[in-house]
Amino acid sequence: MTERQGDNFAGWSDSDHDSDQSIENQRKKWLGGCTRLFQPDKPVTKAQAAVALATGEASDTVSEELARIEAESVAENAVSAHNALVAQVEQDINASFEKELSMEREKINAVETMAEEVRCELERLRAEREKDDVALMKERIAIESEMEVLSKLRREVEEQLQSLLSNKVEISYEKERISKLQKEAESEKQEISRLQYDLEVERKALSMARAWAEDEAKRAREQAKALEEARYRWEKHGIKVVVDSSLDEESSTGVTWLTAGKQIPSVEGTVSRAENLVDKLKLMADNVKGKSLNVIGKIIQKVQVLISFLREWTAKAYSQTKELQEATISKTRGSIQELQQNTTEFSFAIKEKAIGSMQELQQHTADFSLAVKESTKRVAEDCREGVEKLTQKFKS
After folding, report:
1. Are residues 384 and 239 in the same domain?
2. Most buried residue among 22, 269, 276, 288 by CB atoms closer than 10 A?
3. Is 166 within the bounds of a domain?
4. pLDDT given at position 59
5. Where is this region: Disordered (predicted)?
């Protein structure tokens, strides 16, 4: 029960007491009115009673009235006692009610205190709940941000995985390309080794041709020197070539020509040695191919041309020897000079051909070295580019 309800109970008790007094007054008024209505001769007021007593007319009435008054007094006393009892009861009831009301108020206060404590506790719990909700919201936001970060990391990992897969494919492709380049480099290396072998064979062939040419040039110089010494000896011995000389002079001149004609077997030896050189060069050409084969073929061709030239020169020398033997002594000196000139021309031809062969060898060697350098450089650049690409991919 609340304090307002206790105030209502107190108000009810006061209103009951007032209502009882008003009822008593109304009863008295009602009784007076009824007396006048049913007993008009009966004195009601104090003046009427005094007059009636003075005249003696109202003795009975007075006695009756006294009895009535006594009865009324008794009734009033009873009513007063009853009212006192009722008041006592009401007082007791009010006291008990007040006691109960105070108890109820204490209970209400206790309940209100408990309610306040509960409210405070609820407020505290509400604040804690709100705090927990805020913490949960923060945790939720943190979890969502972490989920976003994780999803982002997942996407990045997937992208990196795709990149790694693509890099793996590219690496496999680069490996195949590098393997192919290695095979090409190996084949180029083998080709270079073969070309080096061919170059070595070509150098050997050229050195053989050069040695042969120098040897033949040396022999030609020796022959020219021998002719010069023979001419010097002829002039020293006073041998002169005269067209109209005697047979002794002709025979003497023939003997001198026979000495000079010893050059022809030496030329035949040169042709024989040149043919041997051609045979060796042909054997060497069977083991090579490409530019070296062409170079050796050109050397063989030039030596064969030189052999043809020497054979023609030998045939011409034989014919000239026969003609000179049959000719006059005056023509002997001219034949010797022509022989010297032919020998000199032969030496110059051998030298020129040897020099041309050496120049061609140097040119072919330079071309071959340039081609080998370019091929090696290209292979090295391809390998370097492949390695740089792989390095950049691994770094990225």
Report:
1. yes
2. 288
3. no
4. 67
5. 1-26
Q: Is 246 helix (H, G, I), strand (E, B) or coil?
A: coil
Please check whether residues 83 and 206 belong to one and the same domain: no
Tokens of 195: 């070309």
And the tokens for 27?
Answer: 């009863």
Q: Using an 8 Å Cβ cutoff, are 192 and 376 in contact?
A: yes
pLDDT band at 204 (very low <50, low <70, confident <90, very high): confident
Predicted TM-score (pTM) of the model is 0.37
67-83: buried (b, 16+ CB within 10 Å) or exposed (e) per residue? eeeeeeeeeeeeeeeeb
Same domain, 130 and 195: no
Q: Is the residue at 145 inside a domain?
A: no
Closest CA to 382 of 190, 185, 192, 171: 185
Q: What's the structural domain count of the chain? A: 2
Residue 3 has what pLDDT? 46
Residue showing tokens 């042909």: 282
Amino acid present at 71: A
- 324 burial class (0-12, 13-18, 19+ CB within 10 angstroms)? buried
Is residue 266 a part of any domain in this protein?
A: yes
One-letter amino acid for residue 57 of the chain = E
Place of tokens 């022959």: 223
Q: What does the pLDDT average to over 242-268?
A: 45
Q: How far apart are CA 349 and CA 341, in angstroms?
A: 12
The tens digit of pLDDT for each residue in 158-174 reads 988 888 888 888 888 88
What 3-state DSSP class applies to 57?
coil
Q: What is the DSSP string of 256-306?
A: HHHHHTTHHHHHHHHHHHHHHHHHHHHHHHTT--THHHHHHHHHHHHHHHH
CA distance 255 to 239: 11
Both tokens assigned to 277: 């050189």
Q: In this structure, are 301 and 381 located in the same domain?
A: yes
Q: Is 171 a domain residue? A: no
